[in-house]
Amino acid sequence: MKHSFIDKYSDLDSTIHRLDPRSKLLASLAFIAAVVLTPAGSWLAFSLYFIVIAALILLSRVPLFYILKRSLVIIPFVLLVAIFIPFFKEGEVVFSFNIWAWHISLTQDGLQLLWSILAKSWLSILSLVLLTSTTGFASLLRGLERLRMPRVIVMILSFMYRYIFLLTDEVMRMKQARDSRNFGGKRLRQVSTVGHMIGTLFIRSYERGERVYAAMVSRGFDGQSRILGGLRFNRSDAIFITGVILALVCINLFNIYY
Length: 258
Description:
By secondary structure, the protein is mostly helical.
């Protein structure tokens, strides 16, 4: 079985790792909210946001290449959604061309909005990658639960992360079995085979879920996640949250008046 844990570096020892998960969650939410609410084209503010998150990444001692690789995964998906904005946003035309009967124009305001969306997305995902890389997943779920997130959502996230590797392994075994039987032929046959695989995977997943639920109930499971050691909100956590919020406020004030 192959694993790719999102909390791969959560066992490192650094200032960020030692913080309470709740403080890191709140700081990440505040950072993302500040980035998203910043007007498009505020490049100085985006640069200052990057300096803040880069400083936190350096303090965490998580490998920079790992952070960069994880954060860039989201960019193609954002680009796929936002690539048409420059063609529909009104403003000064930078470039125009004709495709049969359609006249398509590329505007300056649209390009600015596109680059702003990409910058906001990358900064936001950087903060989330930093959060998950410095916090064990069980501790992260416990922090969400203590912050009054609905328990059912916390448990769904817990089971999703725990069994996604088993499902991936199941898919790989089914693929190997399919290929060993000389998978090929016409496209209609291939679609039919893949459809049968999806149905089989659903049935196996459902049956596995029933077995896991019965096993957990028989062992007295009450729907609450547990970790070794409780969560403690210390003075360092208060200083961390206060420092992040003050930095975000200063960046926004500087962006407004300058």
